[in-house]
Design goal:
Layout: H1 18-23, E1 26-31, E2 34-40, H2 54-69, E3 81-92, E4 101-112, E5 115-125, E6 161-174
């Protein structure tokens, strides 16, 4: 197993998330209803065709979904609840390969009561992680962090080639 660590902004749900740690996920940004994460595809994440295993892409998108659903700092009175997936679907658009850097951008589209709807776009690039452009919807010096991300970022702002779209439905439940 490769030795990996989580870096970037922290979130309480990652403290004991050994799958995300194994995948080498780096948190780039977290805000209310939004998360951007990144990882590099390793050999043990590939299927028999030499491309990213669909389960790895799904797990990566699911981590972005979980981070966007659950606030990094819970409001008073919400300490005893968590938000989980009630259903998801994913569309694999293009393959990704060993050494490519994946970026997932998760955004809440709607929420009502205990339910929410989230879109997660997953991008792949051959560029080094430090050379990747700012992920879509992320604050820049000219954009305050309270700004809402646009529903579809301009192609020039996308952090690579779109390889998968993940739609998640969430439900807030009592914490056990």
């Amino acid at each position: 197993m490769a030795e990996t660590t989580l870096s970037g902004p922290t979130h309480q749900i990652l403290e004991n998330d050994y799958a995300s740690e194994w995948m080498g996920i780096e948190v780039l940004a977290i805000s209310d209803g939004h998360a951007t994460i990144r990882m590099t595809l390793r050999q043990e994440m590939l299927n028999g065709f030499g491309m990213a295993h669909g389960g790895m892409i799904f797990a990566f998108g699911d981590t972005a979904f979980a981070l966007a659903c659950n606030p990094a700092v819970q409001a008073p009175g919400e300490e005893n609840s968590i938000t989980v997936a009630s259903g998801v679907d994913i569309n694999f658009l293009k393959p990704a390969f060993r050494g490519q850097v994946l970026t997932a951008v998760a955004d809440r589209r709607s929420s009502a009561g205990r339910s929410g709807l989230y879109d997660i776009q997953i991008f792949a690039t051959d560029a080094q992680p430090d050379a990747a452009p700012s992920p879509a919807g992320q604050p820049t010096p000219a954009q305050p962090s309270s700004a809402q991300p646009s529903s579809i970022p301009p192609r020039s702002a996308q952090p690579g080639e779109l390889i998968a779209e993940f739609r998640g439905r969430s439900r807030t439940i009592p914490k056990k």
